[in-house]
Write a structure and sequence with these properties.
Elements: H1 2-19, H2 31-34, E1 39-42, E2 52-55, H3 58-66, E3 73-80, H4 97-103, E4 108-112, H5 121-127, E5 130-134, E6 137-141, H6 143-146, E7 149-156, H7 160-163
Parallel strand pairs: 3-7
Antiparallel strand pairs: 1-2, 1-6, 4-7, 5-6
Length: about 160
């Protein structure tokens, strides 16, 4: 799995080199691939070594190469139709990332984590790791280490093309 992450980062760095200093690149991928901290996740079918796994993500490699020249946006949602299976995702855990973001009662927003206060309860909450839904897996994410910003959408639905299938 980690070779895939290295290959993704290497491909992006190749594109960035070809674009030059003025070029802009959008790397749109699952949060686990773009986050700039170690990905810690639990799959529904854990390996014999234990339920929690760690993975160095493409975002970690890209952050070490590009530093602040990249902006990483983690995405979260409250509820809606499933995009990955025939069943709806579980409701947000009230103590997890989605629970906090849903509790704000704002349908859609982007939160710049770099503008959070440098201390206090809000800073501490975003500095700590919290469970989050991730397809069929569960991830542990410390937002301040993983992302520069968060995009939240309260209700998601499949695209019209997917609904016809």
């Amino acid at each position: 799995e980690e070779m895939r992450e290295i290959a993704m980062a290497d491909n992006l760095l190749w594109v960035q080199q070809r674009e030059g200093p003025r070029g802009k690149i959008l790397f749109f991928a699952h949060d686990r691939h773009v986050q700039t901290s170690l990905a810690i996740f639990r799959s529904p079918n854990p390996p014999a070594a234990g339920p929690w796994r760690e993975l160095r993500s493409a975002g970690m490699y890209l952050r070490s190469a590009l530093d602040t020249r990249m902006v990483v946006i983690g995405t979260y949602f409250g509820c809606g139709s499933s995009l990955w299976a025939d069943e709806s995702p579980p409701p947000p855990d009230v103590h997890g990332m989605e629970g906090l973001l849903t509790s704000l009662s704002i349908p859609r927003f982007i939160m710049n984590l770099r503008e959070l206060p440098s201390s206090g309860p809000l800073y501490e909450w975003f500095r700590m790791a919290h469970e989050t839904r991730s397809g069929q897996d569960t991830d542990m994410v410390a937002p301040l280490r993983a992302y520069d910003a968060i995009l939240f959408i309260d209700t998601i639905t499949p695209s019209p093309a997917r609904q016809k299938q």
